[in-house]
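= Tokenised fold =
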Amino acid sequence: MDVPEMINAGELVLKRWEPAWAVEAADAVSESLPEFQPFLPWAVDGYGLDQSRAFIEMSVDSWDAGTEFNYAVFTTIGELIGSIGLMTRLGPGTLEIGYWIRTPFAGRGHMTAAVTVLTRVALTLDGVERVVVRFDEANKASAAVAAKAGFTEVDRSRREPTAPGETEILVTTERRS
């Protein structure tokens, strides 16, 4: 899959994760833990430099393997404000988008812009027929981003919660080519 390593998105730039950004990424997640912990299992027990380095290393390896394509999200003045990625785990023809945004930048439309542009790019890739965003029913912020980015709900399924704020309901939304 020929996924671009950098995507310009107006006021944002999505760049393939690099190890040099580990400290800034750890800081971004740490300051946003109160918002992340209810819905992101990897944030429940805190997050520091070791976890940040491990995530970036996994991102580099997964990109090279063609299974995940994770980007750091920057403002055009160079502030790291979040992360977004495409995952192949739902099988052929489908890419799943996952994302988080640094708390001080939430609610400004940045993540909606990032999801919109990444979806547009994903739907131009060979063999990709749909892009999916999945989130817990209680995660209203993720639901709002998906809706504003033009995703339509296609499924609700039961599953075991993985973080303390989650319900048993996983909502699946999609956009098609």
Summary: The two ends are 17 Å apart (CA to CA).
